[in-house]
Amino acid sequence: MPTPTKEKIYFEEYNVKVTNLRFCFHNDTIPIDQITATYVHHRVLRLTLTVFGFIGSFFTLIYGHIGLLIITSFFIWLFYEYTHYVSLYITVKDKNLKVKNGSIAGCRFIYNIEDALMLAMEESQKLMETGDFEYTDSMKFSLKMKELES
Q1: What is the C-alpha separation between 3 and 35, in angstroms, rounded?
Q2: For residues 145 and 150, what is the distance between their CA atoms, to the nearest angstrom?
Q3: Model confidence band, residue 107 (pLDDT cutoffs 50, 70, 90)
Q4: What's the CA gap between 66 and 74, in Å, rounded?
Q5: Are 68 and 119 in contact (CB under 8 A)?
Q6: What pLDDT is recorded for position 87?
Q7: For residue 62, how many C-alpha atoms fall within 13 Å in the half-sphere facing its CB?
Q8: DSSP per residue over 96-130, as a string?
Q9: pLDDT confidence band for 147 (50 / 70 / 90)
């Protein structure tokens, strides 16, 4: 019988932790072997349309206060699209879960999480193939609790 696998940390910042056994974010923990895919989604078209809308909204200044209201609305929309430009998704049991949003300036953080997840998934796959993998007691308990919740 194999010994329980020791956790190796690939990434740990803020409220995100990626190890060779689990992925923790926003008080949720998912075993790495249950994650089947990761992908990063960029909202390029939405941001582009918002920028053009914001620029075009300056032509509404001839309408006075209504023009200022339109410009302000487009500015708020532009800020929202900028701060949610990139999103990290994972696939767990045929369900897509949004893990994290990031701005254009924060893309590197999202990419680091994805890289760590890919490394952890590769190592988990190798351990499963060799048969050297076994859940720790705390992970077994966590999985049982998740099953009871569903």
Answers
A1: 23
A2: 9
A3: confident
A4: 12
A5: no
A6: 92
A7: 2
A8: EEEEEEE-STTHHHHHHHHHHHHHHHHHHHHHHHH
A9: low
Q: Say what the pLDDT of residue 1 is.
A: 43
The letter for the amino acid at 150 is S
The span from the CA of 17 to the CA of 11, in Å, is 6
Residue holding tokens 């994805």?
A: 114
**pLDDT, tens only, 64-87:** 888 889 999 999 999 999 999 999
Give the residue carrying structure tokens 């019988």.
1
Overall residue count recorded for the chain in this entry: 150
Measure CA 103 to chain center. Answer: 12
Task: Write down the number of H helices and E strands in the chain.
Answer: 4, 7
pLDDT tens digits, residue range 45-70? 999 999 999 998 888 888 888 888 99
Q: What is the DSSP string of 5-31?
A: PPP-EEEEETTEEEESSEEEETTEEEE
The Cα 90–Cα 117 span in angstroms is 9
